[in-house]
Amino acid sequence: MTDTTPDTALDIIAIGNALVDVLSPTADDFIASEGLTRGAMQLIDADRATSLYAKMGPGVEISGGSAGNTVAGAAALGARCAFVGQVARDQLGEVFVHDLRSQGIAFTVPPRTPDVPTGRCLVLVSPDGQRTMNTYLGAAQYLPTSALDEAQIASAKVLLLEGYLWDPAEPRAAMKAAIGIARKAGREVALGVSAVFCILSHRADFTALIDEGQIDILFANEEELFALTGLDEFEAAVAAVAPKLRVLVATRGPAGAVAIADGKRFEVAAEPVDRVVDTTGAGDLFSAGYLTGHVQGRSVEQCLRMGAIAAAEVISHYGARPEADLKMMVDARLG
After folding, report:
1. Does residue 28 register a pLDDT over 90?
2. Quick check: 18 and 118 in contact, CB under 8 A?
3. CATH code of residue 215
4. N or C of the chain: less Cβ packing under 10 Å?
5. Mean pLDDT in residue range 236-251
6. CA distance linking residue 151 with residue 227, whole number of Å
7. How many alpha carbons lie under 13 Å from residue 289 in its C-beta half-sphere?
8. pTM for the complete prediction?
9. Residue 118 lies in a domain
10. Per-residue DSSP letters for 116-170?
């Protein structure tokens, strides 16, 4: 159920890692030679980020971060958005902030000194579009509770939390505080669990948030649901989690997605794509489409279709931010 009170200045406010993606087409033998797991995401330190970047081929720099990608997609679809994340006062930090503000996304967190640089994700893109991500969090992991604007959070229909950012202690405390602010204001809270390793590290925390009714909307892919529930069968995992949430959205890649909303089941097929170029951000943009439809009061079926359309667009090119006019695409297909 969406918020219908008149005092919502924002549709979505997201808290997440402020990262710049560096994407480079890469052969799978290079990934193996570097001891990396194809298709996985791992955290790396500053030295490893420097050495791996030096070995990568030519690439492109595009602002990223899971929650940042989601609000970028949502803003492109017409949602009023804000982002909360930490950058440093350096070149990549300026790139990240400019990319958000150029879309009309509110960003008010002041940059920190560049002794710890802005985070970046080195994305190795295989010939089939699979991405192997190597993330140096940098300044992103030092987001303080003091960076929160309580009035801004309270004014948003939905607070979106990025699971990746639950790992460092300082931003975890900020997100817990933000949940309290949103709950007090009667707003909805959405969580994207982000990755299996996040769940394995913080399964007790995520489970507690869900069990205590602190999460209204949960976004997870099939593997993440398995990790969260400890089950290895999709329908059983859905049945274990869905009754504890207003909405569960489970994405299944080429097999489409399932939503359980207020106890009712809805499904959508994946949108056709001529060629999968880069799957970076597919889940983030699916969330963008779904949440935008949700805050607009659309049906669950239309929310799922919007998610599928946005995800299909982003996997058709490099980078996790939309390039085509998503709003026009949705209007043409859904009206």
Report:
1. yes
2. yes
3. 3.40.1190.20
4. C
5. 97
6. 35
7. 35
8. 0.89
9. no
10. SPEEEEEEEE-TTS-EEEEEEEEGGGG--GGG--HHHHHTEEEEEEEGGGGSSHH
Question: Does pLDDT of 2 surpass 60?
Answer: no
Which residues touch 6 (CB under 8 Å, ≥6 apart)? none
Indicate the Cα dihedral angle 62, 50, 30, 39, nearest 10°. -50
Q: Return d(Cα 310, Cα 142) in angstroms, integer.
A: 31
For residue 123 the two structure tokens come to 């994305």
Q: Which amino acid is at 247?
A: V
Residue 223 included in any domain? yes
Containing 25, the helix (H) or strand (E) segment is strand 19-25
Q: State how far the Cα of 111 lies from the Cα of 84, in Å rounded to an integer.
A: 11
Q: Is 111 exposed, middle or buried (0-12, 13-18, 19+ CB in 10 A)?
A: middle
Name which of 32, 52, 195, 196 is nearest 134 in CA terms. Answer: 52
In a domain, 24, yes or no: no
Domain count of the fold of the chain: 1
Q: Write out the residue range of the structural domain in which residue 236 sits.
A: 10-17+65-108+141-334
Sheet holding 41-43: strands in order across?
41-43, 131-138, 118-125, 19-25, 60-64
Q: Which residues contact 289 (CB under 8 A, 6 or more apart)?
A: 73, 77, 303, 305, 306, 307, 308, 309, 310, 311, 326, 330
